[in-house]
Amino acid sequence: MPTDLTGTFLRLTDGRPALRFTRAYGHPVDRVWHMVTDPDELARWFPFRAEADLRPGGTVAFRGESGAEEFTGTVLAVDPPRHLSFEWGGGELHFDLDEPEEGHTRFTLTDVLAAENTAARTGAGWEVCLAALDARARGERSEGPHGGAHISWKACYEAYIAAGLPSGAPVPGQD
Fold it and tell me: What is the DSSP letter of 105?
């Protein structure tokens, strides 16, 4: 069964590698903003529980499932309810929201990668996480990206490799 990939590998104008994902939601921008900034909402789809001091220079604390290493990042920019970006794990995440029509939101996630060879691995991870966000946006119950997501990380990873995305980075728990 083919896996539909939604991420695009690109190079930013400064040469850094990145992945970009875009979604359309039938919710107002404020509702989607809440899904990407509220710690309880994030826990339903984001790979870590994240609590942020939403101001430039503020700290973002990331906590994983039991046994996962905790770490922090820094808020780079925030413009509620349109943009949030922060540093994490050597890379950056950018969330951009716009309203192409009233009551609808275009959500764009750009992950600026710390290393190019993580693209396939990271892309597969975002597919799983964003499937959980998509389910949440549809009003479906979601146990989060680690709670039996509707798609297979491994199938997405293999599909991204087959599509030619840079790969080769170790896969935690598998290498």
Answer: E
- Structural domains present in the chain: 8-162 (3.30.530.20)
Contact 38, 53 (CB under 8 A): no
* Identity of the amino acid at 112: V
SS3 (DSSP) at 134: helix
The token pair that represents 135 in the structure block: 């389910």
Confidence (pLDDT) at 174: 76
Q: What is the mean pLDDT of residues 117-146?
A: 88
- Alpha-carbon span 4 to 6, nearest angstrom: 6
Whole-number pLDDT of residue 149: 52
- Nearest-10 Cα torsion for 142, 65, 123, 158: -90
Closest CA to 119 of 156, 160, 175, 90: 160
State the DSSP string of 22-64.
EEEESS-HHHHHHHHH-HHHHTTTSSSEEEE--STT-EEEEE-
Alpha carbon separation from 93 to 56, 77, 87 (Å, rounded): 14, 11, 6
pLDDT tens digits along 39-93? 999 989 999 889 999 999 999 999 876 566 789 999 999 999 999 999 998 999 9
